[in-house]
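Form 7-S
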Amino acid sequence: MSAALLESKLTERLGASALQLRSSGFGPVGLPPIDDAVDAMRRRGLDVSGHRSSSTTASLVDGADLILTAERDHVVKIAALSPEAFRRAMTLPEFLAAAALGDDDADGDLRSWVKSLTAERTAGEYLRANVPEVADPTGSMPRAFEAAVVAIEQQCDDVVAELTRHLR
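Output:
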């Protein structure tokens, strides 16, 4: 859902070719989205019914300027795939907190700016830190699921605002 929301909002704000977005995960490959996610995205004018899960690989994360995840565990797994990618991987809410405090002066180079946001972060500290995560609504009652989707949608709006501000 985050990927669909981010892609839609980034395309709307920056144009279709401004950034490339890839979605992957750590679960089984080839699974469709859950019905609740399809319904939630449909209510937002997005069709994710054709999406199928794919695997996160070292080559995928090595090519990324910014890697946004839902959970801290995802960042740890990405670092295990590619230690260099640790500096470019953050949970969605972690990125928003870092961007709010970070330096805007990276000469329009997204990768350098992102790495500056995590420059002080060490792997050992990260494993012990209370890292904010995206609430997973899977299995929730409809009202709780929709509330979680609204929160994810707001975080995606905020990510797009930060990226737009930085890339201008």
